[in-house]
Each structure stands twice: as C-alpha cells, then as structure tokens.
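An instance follows:
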Amino acid sequence: MFNKNFFPTPRNFVEYLREKYLYKDYKRILDPSAGKGDLLKPLMPTNRHYYRGNSAKMEFFAIEIEPELQKILKLTEHMSFIGADFLAFNDQIQFDLILMNPPFDKGDRHLLKAIDVMHYTGDILCILNAETLRNPCTPTRRTLVSKLNELNADVQYHKNIFKDAERKTNVEIAVVWIEIKHDVTDDAFFSATQAAEWDGELEQSNDISVGANIHGLIAAYNHRVELGIKSITEKYKYHHLIGEYIDPNWKHDEESSDSSKNSSLTERMKTDINKFLWRLRNDYWGRVLEFPEAKSKMTYHRRKRFDMMRTNCTRLDFTYDNIRNFLNSLHENYSEDLLLSATDMFDYFTKEFSYCGDSSDNVIGLDVGEHERWKTNKPFVMNKKIILPLSSVTSKLYYSGCGELTCDYRGWRGNLEWGVRTFLDDIDKICETFYDKSHVGFISSADAMQNALEAVAESRNPNDMRNIESTFFKMSAYKKGTIHLTFRDLDVLRRWNLAVCKERNWVGYEYGEHSYDDLDDADKDFADAFEGKKKYQQNVGKVSGLIAGASGVPRLI
C-alpha cells in the first residue's frame, strides 16, 4: 500500500519512548516523517492518559511525503499538516520537540535537517537504523556522528523492535535523544561587522510588485518573513539587559537564575514568531484569490469554502507547491460549490420570497402524476420573472445591513452598495455557468442597476428604474419596494431549473439525453409538465445542466 520506507513505530515501543524521555511540558511538537501519526497521537488530548504533559495546550505538526498517508493526517483531529518533503522544508515555525522515525536509508540526512530546524532550545527524539551510526562510511554519516558528539547526544541501541510490527524488519535501531540548549540571548554576541550588515539590510525598501504574478507574491511574502524574524529575534537578544527599561510589563525575577530567565525569553520569542507567521500567512493566503480571473467567478459559497480552507492553510508555508495544491483542491470542489450556490439561490427565489405578495409568481408548480419519486415533495421550478422585496435583497439574504437601494417621496436615490451588488453578482455568476454563448459585450446586472440609479438621480424620473437590461436580465425597480428580474435567455433558466431538479431527484440525471419515447414514466410526466413533448424533443442532446467551463481559480503549471 505504501512505499518501501514506511515502517510505522510499534505502539508498545512508542509508549516506552514516552515514559523514558518525554517528561517536559512541550507546546509545539513536529513529526517530520509522520506516516499515519503513530508517534504523535498518544500525546494528543484524546489520548492524554498516555502522557504526563498538558496535551490540551499543545500544537501538533506533521510532514509526510506519501500522498495516501497525507490524507490520513489531514483528517486527524488536532493535527496540522504543514508539508510533504522534510528535506526541502524551509519554514520558520518554532518547535519545542521533534519526534521522528525517518526512512532508514535517509536517516542521517533527516536527523541533520532536524538539528538545523531546532535552532533554539528544544529536544529531538529520533529512531535510526543502527548502521547509520556504527558504520559512518559516507561524508553525511560522519558529519552526523560528529554533530551528535558535539551536542552530547544520548544514543541507545535496541534489537528486534520491528520484528513483530505492522511492517516487519530485523533491523537493529538506535534511539537518539538530543537536548539542544540555545537561548535567544546567546545570539547577542555577534561581531560589529555583522551588526553593520544587518542594519543595511533593514533599510526601508518597497515590496516586490505582486500584481497578478504568483511568484512576485511569494517573493514579497518571503521578504516580510525575513524582516519579521530578524526584528523579533533582535528584540529578544538584548531583552535580558534592557527589557525592563523599554517594556513596562517586563520585570526581572531576582530569585530566578539567569538560565531560567533566558529560557523564558526564548519561549516568548518562539511564541511571537509563530503568531507573526500565522498572521502573515492568513493575509497572503487571502491574496491568492485576489486575481481578477478568480474573483469574477467566485460566488458566496465559493468564498465561504475558500475562507474555511484559508484558516487551515495558515499552518502551511506560503510556497509555490503549497499554493498549487491549494488551488487544485478548489478546482476539485468547483462543480459541488457551484451547484450548491445555484440550489440555494433557487430556494431564495421560490421559497424565501414566495409569501411576499405577488412574489408567489416566482414559482411554477409542475402538475405531475403519482410516482414514488415525488411522494413527499412535488417538483416545482422558477418562473421566468422573479419578484423580490428590496428589503430582503439588502438585509435578509447573506449581507445583513450591507446594502442601500431606497426610494421615498422624492424618488429613487442611493448607491448600489456592497450587499446588493454582491447579491446581483452572485446571480450573474450562477447564470454564467448555464450560459453557452459569447461573453463579448457582457453587461453585469449590478453595473446596469448602478447606471440606472445614476440616471434617475439626474432626471428624477422613476421610469429610469424600469426595463434595465443586463446580459441575463431585464430588471425593474418599483417604489412599492420590489425589484423584478426577468430572464432574457430562457435556455439559462431551463438549465438552472433542470440542474436543481436533477440534484433533488425530481427528474433523472439522463433527462434530455434520450428521445422522449425512451424515458421512464416519471420522466415523461415531468417532461409533459415542464416543457411538453415537442419542446423536449427539440432540446434532446442540448446541455441540461452546468456548462463545463473554467472554474475561475487560476491554475499553476
């Protein structure tokens, strides 16, 4: 099922490692070769009886190169998946503990990488093939052995640990325990030359112009990461000497040892760096879909899905590969989101507003026969004219308090504010997905309404709010407080209605693909009520649902 290097750590050995080594209160824990999460799961809140620490306050991070294992990790509660290839990992997240069972044939490179990642005070617990240390026959192995001696690493050898494991092997292993002690104050002692170079780098400079260039966006992000990390670490380097003079909330604990004070500073620095990274990433992930070709196609539901995914992305570094994978995941859900938006708007038109006076005209009930398919709910469709109360458009839909389109005794006034514009834009975007004609000369409903408002402001003639034409609708707004939308393209209306009816199983998914005589009795009854046999036959072979087209999310090649 998985690659040759996947040897999950046996559960009984994981418990042994926890009891022997993990007695501190860690806050940020990484497994850079996480597999299914066997090393991390016993530390999580749902399994806290396995661990003496306060797991409720911990953050768990996982890196895994195997796609099938990544799926398992992404679905694991309390787990943040932050990357695929640890050897290419270049993030600045600060960890307190790295737990690892790396590929046996690359253990030397992985452990050296972990030592590099754990720049400041923290612990590393690593399972290696014993031969990696006992037979340092390569330059990388020799470098590792020298580094472990320098760090006073504790190495214990174990036989037959994987003999009866999920993936069996008789390889002897080495358990390497490293306690790295490097407080931020240790960085205070650097040369005057280095300080001068640093000051030059921190001079004010303009961000790289991003525009529609994804590489420029990444470059600007990396530039800010560099400046932010430097600023934060610089702040804490000398805090033990001057902190009480520049920070009124900072007080020396005279009874604490220098070592304790320095550790506290390092912990505060790590926390500040991570908070900085989360905020910066949230901003830059939010910019990914600011491209015009993406924004122009995103309906309300697509924005909601994106915002939800962006929250998860703040744990992922802002790299080209991560952005590509993120955008591809949006592509995968495109049809689902689009159909959800179309169905919700259908419900607003036919249910939400059907009780509002003459708005009942929005609905056409279909007089179909008695079939099991419609036992609990008779099918209905949208009429070609939709009547909406303006108060609902501006406040009841998605956008409470965000719209302004009003009329009083003096006539129409006001601007088409964000709420109404967004509502009309969403309708246009849904219609566009059922539209199979040229978009040359496209006129949005929001722009057409805004132009009419500007015209009536000058003319004071309420008739200027009648028969306003956009690509998809003829619109009229009335002083009694309603707006009428009439579909100009009846093929768009037909496809929209059929897409919803198919989704609700009111009609078969193959409706429109076969001759009328080949339909089952239920679909024949639906066809008779919806469009008649003759028109159905004319429409056979035409698109009867979503038009296949661009998702509006920029792809990265």
About this structure: The chain is about 40% helix and 15% strand. Residues 188-331 form one domain. The mean pLDDT is 78.
